[in-house]
Design goal:
CATH class: Alpha Beta
Largest sheet: 5 strands, mixed
Distance between the termini: 19 Å
Shape: globular
Helix content: 40-55%
Strand content: 15-25%
Low-confidence stretches: none
Number of domains: 1
Length: 221
């Protein structure tokens, strides 16, 4: 596995850059939201390892219908749930997974799949902007996220801050709501059973590639 900067370090640099550019009011709103998310922690009722991985009718980046099962194509998979192409932290994480995770997953015969609630054109933007060579899907209505217990939505304050920066989630989400997923990585075995799940309520933190590979090693033993 190639060695690049940990996601946490990239996020710290990103936060420093944003602090110098974004309006103070917006930063304050996002900071308050992150503190609330930290305090709340992982929600009760998140799907447990050993249960069947939920599935639903999804859309690929070109708007064609598919499912997680179809995307896995009989393989184990690492499924990454992210908020959308508009989220700078998501871009950092998905780029890092392309560079550090995908080569090793290809060697192991494991699929890498990213899922968000955004419209397919947002998935295409995410894939093209970050040169992603793995499957990027849209889950209209967050059906898989809801079944996994990782559904959330920005606070009212954060929604106002997003609006001040030109972002309206009801415009980018496929179902026209503010609902998004907590950034989450799930390891699914070849039979479709959830073997490991790592949920990050605070969206500024992400699962590092090494953690995913360690979980995958346990799954494939």
């Amino acid at each position: 596995m190639s060695s690049t900067t940990p996601i946490a370090d990239q996020v710290a640099a990103l936060a420093e850059s944003m602090a110098a550019q974004a309006p103070a009011e917006a930063l304050e709103a996002f900071g308050a939201e992150q503190a609330e998310l930290d305090a709340a922690g992982v929600p009760a009722g998140v799907a447990a390892a050993g249960t069947e991985m939920p599935d639903a009718s999804l859309l690929d980046a070109h708007g064609e219908s598919t499912t997680l099962k179809q995307a896995r194509d009989g393989r184990p998979a690492v499924v990454v749930f992210y908020r959308g192409a508009w989220c700078p932290y998501c871009n950092v994480a998905l780029r890092t997974y392309q560079a550090e995770l995908k080569p090793e997953l290809d060697r192991l015969g494991v699929a890498l799949i990213a899922v968000s609630p955004q419209k397919p054109d947002g998935s295409l933007t995410m894939a093209e902007t970050n040169d992603l060579a793995y499957t990027v899907l849209s889950d209209p209505g967050n059906r898989i996220g809801r079944a996994l217990g990782i559904l959330t939505r920005p606070s009212d304050q954060a929604q106002q801050a997003q609006a001040s920066l030109g972002l309206d989630l009801t415009e980018v989400n496929a179902d026209g709501t503010y609902d998004i997923v907590m950034p989450t990585v799930a390891v699914v075995d070849a039979s479709g059973v959830l073997r490991w799940i790592d949920v990050h309520p605070n969206y500024t933190t992400r699962t590092e590639p090494a953690e995913i590979l360690a979980a995958l090693a346990e799954t494939l033993r």
